[in-house]
Amino acid sequence: MTFISILLALLIEQIKPLRADNPVYTQIQQLAHKIEESFNAGAAKHGRLGWWIVVGVLTVPTALIYWLCMKLNPLAGLLWNVFIVYMTLGFRRYSHYFTSIQLALSAGDDDAARRHLAEWAHIDTTGMDVPEISRLAVERSLIATHRNVFGVFFWFLMPVGPACAVMYRVSEYLARAWSEPEHMRNEAFGEYARKVFYWIDWLPARLTAVAFAIVGNFEDAVYSWRNYADRWKDEAMGIILSAGGGALGVRLGEPEEKALIISDPDAEDENAEIESQPGAEATPRSLQSVVGLVWRALLLWMLMLAILSFAVWL
């Protein structure tokens, strides 16, 4: 049932992608905002209570409906699974940004590419050159694919899969919504959401990196993962981007240590920069390579899931 649910949800999403501003997501965002306004009194314990309220309100009903559907009819359970996977997956939810950037760069319209990237990443892209635009688009696509597809896949395979998939997507959103906005960056309220999502995403992030390595350049992906992943402030992001960059043969990211200068007085060259990640500079062609890497990784996940489902049926 798990394999069929994911397959049907993917097929439906290819036909009718779910918009990022759909009513369900809007309601969840409003709920998270209201909880933050009501519970944020400046302490981490308030964030912990708020996190459990939001996650509980969304996951408990999902689990109860799944249990009821399975009691009534397995077909009802299958339909509920397909609905939840469709709502939590985001394989094509942000692909229009990526496609627009790719087409703009191919047409030589750098201004349009900067505009689309700014809308997608919510950053200032003024003055960015083509390699930087390409690099950021590749990075954004790899992270978005992991958090909107592969992370959901992993948790959907757990017992009471629909509730676990909802838990993953909600916890990922809360980790961002309660930490990334400028007015929340120094707030203790979002600490618990960040810590919980770190552990929730610990294994899925590494499985995504393994998938990228298997379907890409394995040796370079593993080398970059082992030697450069810890140079990012966000550990999961460092693992995914270093492995993804190695698999693609592209130099990704702006690790914290990249701009550091060796300050050891005993060093021969005090101005020597720390060795940068190997790989070629990102180009518009790299965006097409990302599409191939993601599709191959997706097919690998589906193949493994099909084998696992077949083994269970036997």
From TrEMBL:
Residues passing through the membrane, by range: 49-68, 75-94, 149-168, 293-313
One Pfam short name: CobD_Cbib
GO biological processes: cobalamin biosynthetic process
Keywords of this entry: Cell membrane, Cobalamin biosynthesis, Membrane, Transmembrane, Transmembrane helix
Main location: membrane
Stated family: Belongs to the CobD/CbiB family.
Function: Converts cobyric acid to cobinamide by the addition of aminopropanol on the F carboxylic group.
Full protein name: Cobalamin biosynthesis protein CobD
Organism: Undibacterium luofuense
Lineage: Bacteria, Pseudomonadati, Pseudomonadota, Betaproteobacteria, Burkholderiales
Gene name, Swiss-Prot/TrEMBL: cobD
